[in-house]
Write a structure and sequence with these properties.
It holds the Pfam family EF-hand_7. Helices cover 51% and strands 7% of the residues. By secondary structure, the chain is mostly helical. About 16% of the residues have low confidence.
Length: 237
Amino acid sequence: MAAPAQISQDELEELREAFAKIDVDSHGHIGTDELNDLFKAANLPLPGYRVREIIQDLTKTGDLHDGKVTFNEFANVVHGLKSTEVAKTFKKAINKKEGIYAVAGTSEQSSSGTQHSYSEEEKVAFVNDDTIVTWVNDTLTQAGKGTISGFKDGSIATSMPVLDLIDAIQPGSIRYDLIKVEDLTEEEKLNNAKYAISMARKIGARVYALPEDLVEVKPKMVMTVFACLMARGMKRV
């Protein structure tokens, strides 16, 4: 099975990097028991039951080879999970229920018919990049703050978009008198980033990125920061 043509070259390279982290012996495949770690390495954490369902599906379709998953098979699974239609369906199906979002439709039940609920972090894992950027910009605009063009936006190096989003989610939480805004040195950018990561965690966002990821504007890691803040922000709804 070939990797899906719809996945961009940049995303394919990111997936290869994640795959290589798990396939440490460079065999070109991983065991099904390592699939959960692989999804985490690819910044796509999934509930355990969902990983088991994927393994069952791969087994039924004959895409497993002696219980091993190849890179192309993994890429196809990721493409299916992050497709635009899945993201739209998932987004429309969100209903708040005691701090957890129950999911309606096909995502609601496992193959065994068991109903599941997703935490905000699990839910955001299914949402595509454009949806996250749209949510971030809508939230920033509503708070009267500047927006971003995407996860490669140069302003992210200053951490201001992240700090503004935190303040939009929890008004008054950011002390802007502690932040250097213009003509920043590399050290000042790093200080802003450290403050941003610290405050994101303080308001309850499960951010695992490093300050350097913001300063260097690493798109994939920047995406995880905004995704975690989106998960935190949606708890206000």
